[in-house]
Specification:
It is built from 17 helices and 12 strands. It has helices at residues 3-36, 78-99, 102-116, 160-176, 191-202, 221-227, 235-245, 252-265, 267-296, 299-303, 310-320, 327-339, 344-354, 384-387, 402-405, 445-452, 493-515, and strands at residues 51-54, 62-63, 72-73, 149-152, 183-188, 207-213, 356-363, 392-393, 419-420, 430-434, 468-472, 477-480. A hairpin with a 4-residue loop joins strand 11 and strand 12 (477-480). The N and C termini lie far apart (76 Å).
Length: 517
């Protein structure tokens, strides 16, 4: 075979490969279009630009060495925490109960926690240690097509301003390597902080629309509490949190009634009061040796401190943390405050003028029972007032008074009279979902696409789902909220005992029926 024939043959093969790539690209794009397509209720076909999803905290794998993807850092899971409590913390508490040696308990618990989170520590300037971090794989050009979904991965321990630069590069890559000049953005939780920083620093010219799901832009109350050294554990808070977050299981009723019995007997209060006393006594050591060294150098954590507490938190840390130079860290916190935090509303309102905007908030639960903020209505992580960008909520277990509701437009009031959406930054574009937990973003992800590409810009008046919906766990769907307002009343001791015995009997009957098969 001559050289010319060889060259011609290679060209033919390459041409065939290019043709196959194009065919494959078309097939994948068509598949993605059907997968991500808005259901039939969208009134018209809208060109669907690529979607960039910015996840929340701990949702990208951290590698000890970004150049060696075999060495990943495993996030401590439920089983690991249980082992830590069983093997390290409970024995230390037993010794403390007998000796009341707070120093020994503090250092034992601190060492155990630090070992579990040893790979999560940052440098004192807020940067990752060594070459640890996230590997963010850019999509191939043929993967970028109409409606294609691209997950932006980032180091959730880092500086939101640095991460915003990485997101800018990612978006530029997509627009420069496709026919699209814009992308649609969606985010969950901390992801909204990253997107806000991007919009503040790089503008919104390349943003077609933005859906923020349980955004942490306005901060999280208990984060501010903790960085001010405030820890408060109560029996009522722990029990309320557990009952609301156990999830739908076959033992849900039995566990809930068992907790009621423990509460009625006073056992839960004794246990929680003991733990609260121990934690408060350990607090200075835990703050200096564990809480701040692990999380205090995460600039993302500082971005989630509520604005009205940021100065107080910074002052508290400067006064109470003496194990390192904080000047560079504080300068980065100040940079985020001035460049992003202080103009967040202006940034979002500007985006609303040029792009589609939607907010998803959740309610019906408490928040973490580790500070007094557990009494705020939320989604077990972020309080509803923050995640909705401004809604007012009734006190936990209660509903708005007639005096509060006087003169209000009732279309903004939830049917159970616990949420007032009229005070939101975007009252016509904020949807509230009841009884769904913060981390259950899988149930709302399809809504992100529907809200982005609805025939006309989606509002609470024209979209399929109303402003207030309830999550039905049996069908895993959202239904319009028709809950009537009612105050939470504790059952009497007799009712608690009856509920416990009934739940126990039901499980015994099921067990013996199964045993006899």
């Amino acid at each position: 075979m001559t050289n010319k024939e060889s060259i011609d043959r290679i060209k033919t093969i390459k041409k065939g490969e290019d043709t196959m790539k194009k065919i494959l690209s078309i097939i994948i794009c068509i598949s993605l279009i059907f997968t991500l397509a808005v259901p039939a209720f969208a009134s018209e076909n809208t060109e669907k630009c690529p979607i960039v999803y910015v996840h929340g905290i701990a949702s990208s794998t951290i590698y000890l060495d970004k150049d060696n993807p075999d060495e990943k850092v495993d996030t401590p899971d439920k089983e690991a925490f249980i082992e830590l409590i069983k093997e390290e913390i409970l024995p230390a508490l037993v010794v403390y109960a007998a000796t009341r040696d707070v120093d020994k308990l503090s250092h034992t618990v601190s060492a155990a926690i630090n070992d579990s989170f040893r790979h999560w520590f940052n440098n004192t300037d807020g940067t990752a240690k060594g070459n640890s971090g996230v590997i963010n794989n850019y999509p191939a050009e043929w993967e970028i097509c109409e409606g294609s979904l691209h997950r932006f991965r980032y180091d959730w321990r880092g500086d939101p301003i640095t991460i915003a630069g990485e997101l800018n590069d990612y978006i530029n890559y997509i627009t420069e390597n496709s026919e699209f000049d814009k992308v649609a953005l969606t985010s969950h939780s901390l992801g909204a902080v990253v997107v806000l920083a991007y919009l503040s620093l790089y503008g919104n010219d390349k943003v077609y629309g933005y859906v923020m799901d349980s955004p942490a832009i306005e901060g999280v109350s208990y984060v501010g509490d903790l960085l001010c050294g405030e820890i408060d554990i109560t029996g009522e808070g722990v029990l309320t949190f557990l009952k609301g977050t156990l999830g739908k299981t076959e033992y849900e009723e039995l566990i809930a009634s068992s907790l009621d019995i423990l509460e009625m007997a006073g056992v839960s209060d004794l246990v929680v009061d003991f733990l609260d006393d121990a934690v408060k006594k350990m607090a200075p050591v835990l703050f200096e040796e564990t809480l701040f060294p692990i999380f205090g150098y995460w600039l993302t954590i500082w971005a989630m401190v509520p604005e009205d507490r940021i100065d107080e938190c910074m002052a508290f840390v400067k006064e109470n943390y003496n194990n390192g130079d904080l000047s560079f860290l504080m300068s980065k916190i100040e940079a985020y405050n001035s460049l992003v935090r202080e103009k967040r509303k202006e940034t979002l309102l500007s985006l609303d003028e040029s792009a589609r905007v939607a907010v998803i908030s959740r309610y019906g639960h408490t928040c973490f029972p580790i500070t007094s903020s557990w009494e705020l209505v939320g989604d077990a992580v972020i309080e509803t007032k923050s995640s909705s960008l401004g809604a007012e909520t009734a006190p936990l277990g209660d509903y708005f008074s007639e005096e509060y509701l006087k003169g209000k437009d009732m279309k903004y009031i939830s049917p159970d009279k616990t949420v007032d959406a009229s005070t939101c930054l975007f009252p016509e574009k904020t949807w509230f979902f009841k009884n769904i937990l913060h981390e259950e973003v899988g149930y709302t992800r399809d809504l992100h696409t529907q809200l982005l590409f609805f025939g006309e810009e989606a509002t609470c008046d024209n979209f399929t789902l109303s402003r207030f919906s309830v999550f039905d766990r049996d069908s895993e769907t959202f239904i319009n909220d028709e809950t009537q307002p009612q105050k939470a009343e504790k059952p009497s001791p007799l009712e608690r005992l009856f509920n416990f015995l009934k739940a126990l009997l039901d499980k015994l009957i099921i067990f013996f029926k199964g045993f006899g098969k």
